[in-house]
């Protein structure tokens, strides 16, 4: 697993891969603010010759609009490097229904545009008897659009959701996401969508990999239940960063299906000198941190006066807890301090 240093080189994590598949919200930006270290780190990734694809569950914007937004934040990006759940949903609809079929779009103009570009006819009313309802996030959505969706689905239309993310990360904390809006319709109908396109389903990752013809892709995300589970479903290695919704406590407690391959504080973990956990029957060591199996717990201690970043301690703890399921405790004052900083008991 990775630490949070900021120098690129042959021993960096990303040097083992030829493509990085990046989530956006909570990884590259939070609302209208770029995440610290993102611009510098992604520039170093490109300098190392590794391709980049931005893969987002958010269906609010077109790929071109997403790329333009990234560029305004200082992140190098092109439209053909962006994969959105709106694109995935439109492609799925085009496979399932004849050209010219009407689809009720509950979402943004970008989602409607993708549906139209796939040869289908967007509509905003159940009265036109659409064959399907596609639902994606848009901040302007309200009761009238949700009501039309409920009526159309009750009348027999298939129901496709671009994603089920309950929240959107923001600089003000988590805000309601598409999953919360889907839940309103689900509560009305007493059922769930027929299909979900976005992560943790593997389709968006598979589309991005096909575009790049990559052989060694790495998924990077902040959400265990979408980005990391999606990577695991697609059979891809993953890096979890702590700049979005996932906390250290949630990471340590993660069940197997949502455990990442690597952990980093932020995107600098892609280009930092790589520190692998050293494990044996007695415990795990990463950098200047040692975790021992002792007295029915995993006990964290510092092995020198300056043990290094807390992300190294978290990496060691994840490896130990995932192996044993034991609770965490501090073995010295340095460990107690870093556990408190990570929001962990100790």
Task: Please give a handful of descriptors for the protein shown.
11 helices; Acid sugar phosphatase; 3 domains; GNAT-like; 21% strand; elongated; 346 residues; Rossmann fold; five-stranded parallel β-sheet; six-stranded parallel β-sheet; GMP Synthetase, Chain A, domain 3; HAD_sf; disordered N terminus; 20 strands; alpha/beta
Give a written overview of the molecule.
GO terms for molecular function: phosphatase activity. It holds the Pfam family Hydrolase_6. The chain has 346 residues and is an alpha/beta fold. It folds into 3 domains: 13-57 and 200-270, Rossmann fold (3-Layer(aba) Sandwich); 86-196, HAD superfamily/HAD-like (Rossmann fold); 278-341, GMP Synthetase, Chain A, domain 3 (2-Layer Sandwich). 33% of the residues lie in helices and 21% in strands. It contains 11 helices and 20 strands. It has helices spanning 38-47, 63-72, 85-96, 109-117, 143-154, 178-189, 203-212, 224-234, 248-252, 310-324, 333-341, and strands at 19-22, 29-30, 33-34, 51-56, 82-84, 102-106, 121-123, 132-135, 158-161, 167-168, 175-176, 195-196, 217-221, 238-241, 262-264, 278-280, 283-286, 289-294, 297-302, 328-330. The chain has a 6-stranded parallel sheet, with helices on both faces. A 5-stranded parallel sheet has the order 7-6-8-9-12, sandwiched between helices. Strand 17 (283-286) and strand 18 form a beta hairpin. Helix 3 (85-96) packs parallel to helix 4 and helix 5 (143-154) packs across helix 6. It is elongated, with a radius of gyration of 22 Å.
């Amino acid at each position: 697993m990775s630490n949070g240093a900021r120098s690129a080189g042959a021993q960096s994590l990303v040097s083992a891969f030829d493509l990085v598949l990046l989530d956006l919200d909570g990884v590259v930006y939070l609302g209208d603010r770029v995440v610290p270290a993102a611009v510098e780190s992604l520039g170093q990734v490109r300098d190392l010759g590794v391709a980049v694809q931005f893969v987002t569950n958010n269906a609010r914007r077109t790929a071109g609009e997403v790329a333009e937004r990234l560029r305004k934040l200082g992140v190098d990006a092109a439209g053909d490097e962006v994969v959105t759940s709106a694109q995935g949903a439109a492609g799925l609809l085009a496979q399932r229904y004849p050209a010219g079929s009407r689809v009720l779009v509950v979402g943004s103009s970008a989602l409607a545009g993708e549906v139209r570009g796939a040869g289908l006819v967007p509509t905003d009313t159940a009265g036109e008897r659409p064959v399907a309802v596609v639902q994606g996030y848009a901040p302007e959505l309200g009761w009238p659009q949700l009501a039309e969706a409920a009526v159309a689905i009750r009348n027999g239309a298939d129901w496709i959701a671009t994603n089920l993310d309950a929240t959107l990360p923001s600089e003000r904390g988590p805000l309601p996401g598409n999953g919360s809006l889907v839940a309103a319709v689900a509560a009305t109908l007493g059922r769930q969508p027929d299909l979900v396109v976005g992560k943790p389903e593997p389709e968006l990752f598979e589309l991005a990999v096909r575009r790049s013809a990559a052989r060694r892709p790495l998924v990077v995300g902040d959400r265990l239940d979408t980005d990391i589970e999606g990577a695991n479903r697609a059979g891809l290695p993953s890096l979890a960063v702590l700049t979005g919704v996932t906390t250290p406590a949630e990471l340590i407690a993660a069940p197997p299906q949502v455990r990442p391959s690597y952990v980093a504080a932020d995107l600098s973990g892609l280009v930092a000198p790589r520190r692998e956990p050293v494990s044996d029957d007695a415990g795990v060591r990463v950098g200047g941190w040692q975790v021992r199996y002792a007295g029915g717990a995993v006990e964290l201690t510092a092995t020198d006066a300056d043990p290094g970043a807390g992300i190294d301690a978290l990496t060691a703890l994840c490896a130990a807890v995932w192996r044993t399921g034991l609770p965490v405790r501090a073995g010295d004052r340095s460990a107690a301090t870093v556990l408190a900083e990570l929001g962990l008991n100790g």
